[in-house]
Amino acid sequence: MCDDIPCGARYSLFDMTTYLALLRGINVGGNNVIRMADLRAFLAERGFDGVRTYIQSGNVIWNDAAATEDEARSRIGNALSDLLANEVTSVVLSAERLAAIVAGAPTGFGGDPDAFRYDVMFLMPELDAQAVAADLPVREGVDTAVAGDGAVFFTRRIDAASRSYMPKIVGTPIYRQMTIRNWNTTTRLLGMVDGRNS
Q1: What structural domains and CATH numbers belong to the chain?
Q2: What pTM, to 2 d.p., does this model score?
């Protein structure tokens, strides 16, 4: 085997699925520091096809013959453990799943960026979004948390940002089982995985 794919195997683009890995803890607080250009080069050397990245927080897109998101997650996880000293976890989504999550956003989500900050909490597969949304600390009148399919949509008022419970979420155990992207980044990534943006 070569990196979880049989050595010498050849796949056409018709056999492949586009995947997105949302890496946790990349280039934060001096931990797991890596330039995206170096990450792209490393993954290409390991046989990952069509690798692209977006901003320094660790968003990696590639084409893979993996049959499931779990298989794709295992493959990139194994590669990253060889590259970085610390274990890096990630939420891995197919292009189809990402599109479904974005389509399932609450009505009006992202529609008033002057008044609200919009974040998407992408959850590890073992988590139930309804249960997570119900348990998240929110401040009435400031924060809202709405469950989607594998994600929670979190909104907070900009004019009351200092009262938002978002910083408290970062300190909870459940935070280790999610990774958060703002709405602009999320929609940009959707454009990249479906080919609308390079």
Answers
A1: 13-97 (3.30.70.1280), 104-193 (3.30.70.1260)
A2: 0.88
